[in-house]
Amino acid sequence: MQNITDIIEAYLKQILHDEKKIEIKRQEIAERFDCVPSQINYVINTRFTIEKGYFVESKRGGGGYIRIQKIVILDSHDLLDEMSRWIGNDLTEQAAEDYLIRLVNEQLLTRREAIVVQSLLQKESLPMVLEDQRRMRAHLMQTLLKTIKRL
Amino acid sequence: MQNITDIIEAYLKQILHDEKKIEIKRQEIAERFDCVPSQINYVINTRFTIEKGYFVESKRGGGGYIRIQKIVILDSHDLLDEMSRWIGNDLTEQAAEDYLIRLVNEQLLTRREAIVVQSLLQKESLPMVLEDQRRMRAHLMQTLLKTIKRL
DNA sequence: CAAACAATAGTCAAAGATGGTCAGAGAGGT
DNA sequence: ACCTCTCTGACCATCTTTGACTATTGTTTG
Fold it and tell me: Are B113 and A113 in contact (CB < 8 Å)?
């Protein structure tokens, strides 16, 4: 626990223990711990990933920031990971619908949400050749699964 | 929230919270917040866009002004049609986000639904060249608008 | 009334302020 | 030695701020 990464990680997590989310300025933190700014990116990329249950947003330019939030890890994460593996990078319209129904049954999505997503994944919404369409649909579904984790 | 843009934005929106429309003098506001006049144009161009639901008029010359109004569209069906027209077949990620926020504000979508859709419309979810990406995003958003009508 | 002048607002490109990426160097463990 | 994790810095992307120049409208003057 002597490397800067761990120290900064501990510092941020200690704050997150009290506050639900924190907003930092990359430069400030870098100065406080006397390291280069990109070190902060390293900390965030290795310690505050979605897999570890964190959601990070940022803005560049004047008044920029990095915001970190702890997200709730559901038991259903396993299911989501499973689905992700099943889907891979190819997904038919019918299969997509089945997955969505499953997600609704597991109460990970509401019916309305499923309808919205389904409409976006139907072939009419993906104007490209069949093969690309299925790849695209799979890609979007993968995004959805990741997003559900932080809803 | 320390950059002038956000501060001026908050100031104007706070007034718009009570008044239905406001009329300002660019020079006056610039003086009050100690910035150059064109800063006010920046605030307006980035924070009071049509996507965000604002309508701005102005006049130059003696007695000139900038008038900002929140657009109220009572019938949500009309709003959806309007949006559809505004979007056409080209849509940036930022504009998409602004529209989604608007839909949430109008209670046509829930926050969760907006988050899901936003994640599907972000550039990482649309792996294609920028131009196609924007067309695709517009297409998906059009589908969404149609879907909302029958929810 | 037309021409000048005054009073506003708009545009745009450059500079400033942040954060992001990535490849390579460094450090620690096996 | 080799492998993995950490650290660094040069370069990139994005958002904000500024100011010189332009455009439009109102007012005064010849």
Answer: yes
